[in-house]
Amino acid sequence: MNRPRIAVYPGSFDPLHNGHLDIIKRCCPLFDEVIVAVLGNESKDPLFTVAERIEIIRSEVADLAGCRVGSFSGLLVDFMDREGANVIVRGLRAVSDFEYEFQMALMNRRLNKRVETVFLVPKHEYIYLSSKLVKEVFFLGGHLEGLVPEMSLERMSLRLGSHEADDGQRP
Ligand code: PNS
Is ligand 1 within 6 A of the CB of residue 108? Predict the structure, then answer.
C-alpha cells in the first residue's frame, strides 16, 4: 500500500488571515492529510499565544477533510519527521516573497533530502495580505472585513480591549 501523502503548511499565523485560509483550502484536496503547523515561541511579542492561534485555525478548518492543526518548535524538518510528512506547502504572493522562500526551501532540502516544498498562489484578492499588515491596520482602526476570519477579528477586538484597559490603569 502507498504511504499517505502528508503535507505540512507551517507558519506563524499571528493572526490567521484569509490568504492563509485560501492556501489551506487549496492544498487540502491535493494531499491525504494536511497539518497546519503553528510555529511556537518565535516572536518575543506575539499578538496571540500559540494555543489561541491553534484554536482560531481549528475553528476555521473544522469542515475540511484531512486537515488538522498542530504546533512545533525547533526545526520544521524534525517536526515533519515525527509526523511522517515530506511536503512543505507555502503560499507565494509576490516576487518579494521569492528570495526568502527559495532560501528556506533549499535549506530544508539540505536538512532533509526527502522533503519537497510546494508553492501555491493565493486568490488575487489576498495577494497583498500579511499578518503584519493586518495587525497594523487593525490597531490603527482600519476595516478588515473580508480579509480575516470572524474569529481572528473578534479575538483581536478582545485583545485591543484588554490593551486599552491596561493603558487606563497606568498612572
Ligand atoms: O509565517 P512565517 O513566519 O513566514 O513562517 C516561517 C516558518 C515558520 C515557516 C519558518 O520560520 C520555519 O520553518 N521555522 C522553523 C525553524 C526552522 O526549521 N528553520 C529552518 C528553516 S530554513
Answer: yes
C-alpha cell at 75: 526545526
Distance from C-alpha of 38 to C-alpha of 8, rounded to nearest angstrom: 10
**Closest-lying ligand 1 atom to the alpha carbon of residue 39:** 8
Task: Give the ligand 1 atom nearest the CA of 107.
Answer: 22
Ligand 1, atom 17: nearest CA belongs to which residue? 75
Residue 142, domain CATH: 3.40.50.620
* DSSP assignment string, 119-154: EEPPPGGGTT--HHHHHHHHHTT---TTTS-HHHHH
Which of 104, 107, 112 to mutate for ligand 1's pocket (most ligand atoms within 8 Å of CB)? 104
97 in a structural domain: yes
Instruction: Assess if residue 169 is contained within a domain.
Output: no
Query: Considering the domain boundaries, does residue 1 fall inside one?
Result: no
Asked if residue 150 is part of any domain, the answer here is yes
Q: What tens digit of pLDDT does each residue of 57-109 get?
A: 999 999 999 999 999 999 999 999 999 999 999 999 988 899 999 999 999 99
pTM assigned to the model:
0.93
